[in-house]
Input
Amino acid sequence: AQDLASTLEADYDSVAVIDGLSGLEGDLLAWDHGHGDGDPDGSGTTETEDGHGEDGDGEDGHDGGRQTDPHVWVDPVRSAEVVETIAAGLGDADPDNAEAYADNAEAYAAELDEIDAAFAALAERATRDVAVIAGHNSFQYLEDRYGFRLHSPVGVSPQNEPTQTEIADTIEIVDREGIDTILYDRFGSTTLAEAILENSDATEMAAVSPAGGTTREWNEAGYGYLEQMTEVNLPAFRRAFGAQ
Output
């Protein structure tokens, strides 16, 4: 994406490239490419995905020579900073409408503030600080922001399959922590979640979305990023962390 942006900017005088992550360079998290989360005791994970299947983002993040987790947008606080940066860039490129861009950004940031408050309340009410996601963990920015932990037995590549040991370790965490709800990526397979559910004391599965894609159903319902966070992710995370 960065290369494409640079090419467009170089080839077309009328193109303005806005780096939404400008100013956030020191706040980006490393992207661990190991297989499995290397955390059988449930102390957290930094594994993420490089694609979401249907309509996924599929992009790597790069910060110089260090590869970074690109899923910045799942954190509403960082997202608000990105929105402000984009609005400022649009205002510079189109001064006649700068005020409209700023007003729209302010209104959107207010909605992001509400999501931030909801996740903060979830973390405060949670009866456990670890949950299990049976798939690629795209949510380490939420972990970093709110202090809860997600255990995933799956590595960064969608082609990776967890070992039997990794699955057994995950089931042990589910039973030890009294986890009732197994999370899974709406854009991935449910096979692993079903296996963990069948072989553990958990009682249900709940889909979560990294908000990098959409579905026909969500399009018809008018779901965008905000609705995926409030109507899909927040309810699922509340169940997984016992914060009902």
